[in-house]
């Protein structure tokens, strides 16, 4: 459920991805300061058709309002800067 004032974030990931695990942990840390609604999308799920587009890029963070996505590698500061736009 969307709450006004929260940023809606899509987090593109897949199982057994250590970079994805690290990125998600960073995203959760950022969410302590910036209210986020995180939609986790497994790119390997057969019904979403995302694997071809994101296989070499994940983990990826995307905010609906922004045209640019944040593609790995990124830092905690990179996430904060990206979400502050």
Q: If you had to describe this structure to a student in words, what would you say it looks like?
A:
With 85 residues, this protein is α+β, with helices and mostly antiparallel strands. Helices cover 31% and strands 24% of the residues. It contains three helices and four strands. A four-stranded mixed beta sheet has the order 2-1-3-4. The longest helix has 14 residues, at 18-31. The mean pLDDT is 93.
Key descriptive features of the protein:
single chain, alpha+beta, 85 residues, four-stranded mixed β-sheet, 3 helices, 24% strand
As residue ranges, the low-confidence spans are none
Order of helices and strands: EHEHEEH
Biggest sheet descriptor = 4 strands, mixed
Q: Strand order, biggest sheet?
A: 2-1-3-4
Hey, roughly how much beta strand do the residues contain? 15-25%
Number of helices, counting only DSSP H or I runs of 4 residues or more: 3
Total beta-strand segments? 4
Shape: globular
State the helical fraction: 25-40%
N- to C-terminal separation? 22 Å
* Rg, alpha carbons: 12 Å
């Amino acid at each position: 459920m969307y709450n006004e004032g929260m940023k809606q974030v899509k987090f593109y990931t897949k199982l057994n991805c250590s970079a994805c695990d690290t990125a998600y942990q960073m995203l959760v840390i950022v969410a302590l300061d910036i209210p986020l609604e995180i939609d986790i999308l497994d790119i390997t799920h057969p019904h979403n058709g995302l694997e071809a587009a994101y296989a070499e890029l994940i983990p990826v963070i995307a905010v609906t309002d922004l045209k640019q996505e944040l593609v790995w590698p990124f830092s905690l500061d990179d996430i904060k800067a990206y979400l502050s736009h």
